[in-house]
Design goal:
- The protein is mainly alpha-helical and 83 residues long.
- It has one domain.
- The chain is 41% helix and 0% strand.
- The chain is built from three helices and no strands.
- The longest helix has 12 residues.
- It is extended and about 45 Å long.
- The chain starts with 18 loop residues before the first helix and ends in an 8-residue tail after the last helix.
Length: 83
Protein backbone atom coordinates (compact mmCIF):
# COMPACT_ATOMS: atom_id res chain seq x y z
CA UNK A 1 0.00 0.00 0.00
CA UNK A 2 2.88 2.36 0.77
CA UNK A 3 4.28 2.10 -2.76
CA UNK A 4 0.89 2.24 -4.50
CA UNK A 5 1.94 -0.65 -6.77
CA UNK A 6 -0.31 -3.52 -7.79
CA UNK A 7 0.62 -6.81 -6.10
CA UNK A 8 -0.33 -10.30 -7.22
CA UNK A 9 -0.54 -13.20 -4.79
CA UNK A 10 -0.80 -16.68 -6.27
CA UNK A 11 -3.59 -18.87 -4.96
CA UNK A 12 -2.52 -21.52 -2.41
CA UNK A 13 -1.60 -24.89 -3.93
CA UNK A 14 -1.44 -23.40 -7.45
CA UNK A 15 2.20 -23.70 -8.56
CA UNK A 16 1.29 -22.99 -12.21
CA UNK A 17 0.56 -19.41 -11.14
CA UNK A 18 4.16 -18.84 -10.06
CA UNK A 19 6.41 -20.56 -12.63
CA UNK A 20 9.53 -18.45 -12.09
CA UNK A 21 9.43 -19.08 -8.36
CA UNK A 22 8.91 -22.82 -8.79
CA UNK A 23 11.68 -23.10 -11.39
CA UNK A 24 14.12 -21.17 -9.20
CA UNK A 25 13.27 -23.39 -6.22
CA UNK A 26 13.90 -26.49 -8.36
CA UNK A 27 17.31 -25.18 -9.43
CA UNK A 28 18.31 -24.25 -5.88
CA UNK A 29 17.26 -27.73 -4.64
CA UNK A 30 20.01 -29.17 -6.88
CA UNK A 31 22.52 -27.51 -4.54
CA UNK A 32 20.63 -27.38 -1.25
CA UNK A 33 18.47 -30.44 -0.72
CA UNK A 34 15.48 -30.29 1.58
CA UNK A 35 16.50 -30.36 5.21
CA UNK A 36 19.89 -28.76 4.53
CA UNK A 37 20.67 -26.22 7.22
CA UNK A 38 21.61 -22.92 5.62
CA UNK A 39 24.12 -21.24 7.85
CA UNK A 40 26.08 -18.05 7.22
CA UNK A 41 28.21 -19.32 4.34
CA UNK A 42 27.92 -16.36 2.02
CA UNK A 43 30.77 -17.39 -0.32
CA UNK A 44 29.00 -20.72 -0.95
CA UNK A 45 25.63 -19.06 -1.51
CA UNK A 46 27.24 -16.47 -3.81
CA UNK A 47 28.89 -19.27 -5.81
CA UNK A 48 25.50 -20.98 -6.22
CA UNK A 49 23.91 -17.72 -7.39
CA UNK A 50 26.72 -17.07 -9.89
CA UNK A 51 26.51 -20.60 -11.26
CA UNK A 52 22.73 -20.38 -11.67
CA UNK A 53 23.01 -16.97 -13.35
CA UNK A 54 25.60 -18.28 -15.79
CA UNK A 55 23.69 -21.37 -16.94
CA UNK A 56 22.68 -21.51 -20.60
CA UNK A 57 18.92 -21.09 -20.97
CA UNK A 58 16.77 -22.82 -23.58
CA UNK A 59 14.55 -19.73 -23.81
CA UNK A 60 17.65 -17.69 -24.78
CA UNK A 61 18.76 -20.09 -27.50
CA UNK A 62 21.10 -21.82 -25.03
CA UNK A 63 23.04 -18.62 -24.36
CA UNK A 64 23.74 -17.48 -20.83
CA UNK A 65 21.90 -14.27 -19.90
CA UNK A 66 25.22 -12.40 -19.95
CA UNK A 67 26.17 -13.69 -23.42
CA UNK A 68 22.70 -12.99 -24.80
CA UNK A 69 22.67 -9.36 -23.67
CA UNK A 70 26.20 -8.92 -25.03
CA UNK A 71 25.09 -10.38 -28.37
CA UNK A 72 22.06 -8.10 -28.46
CA UNK A 73 24.14 -5.03 -27.67
CA UNK A 74 26.96 -5.83 -30.09
CA UNK A 75 24.78 -6.86 -33.03
CA UNK A 76 21.89 -4.51 -32.34
CA UNK A 77 19.62 -7.55 -32.66
CA UNK A 78 16.09 -6.83 -31.54
CA UNK A 79 16.88 -3.50 -29.88
CA UNK A 80 14.50 -0.59 -30.19
CA UNK A 81 15.86 2.62 -31.64
CA UNK A 82 15.92 5.71 -29.45
CA UNK A 83 15.72 8.04 -32.47
Amino acid sequence: MATDLPVFFADPHSPWQRPTNENTNRLIREYLTKGTEIVQRQPYLTAIAEELNNRPCACLGFYTPQKKIHKLLMEGEGLASTN
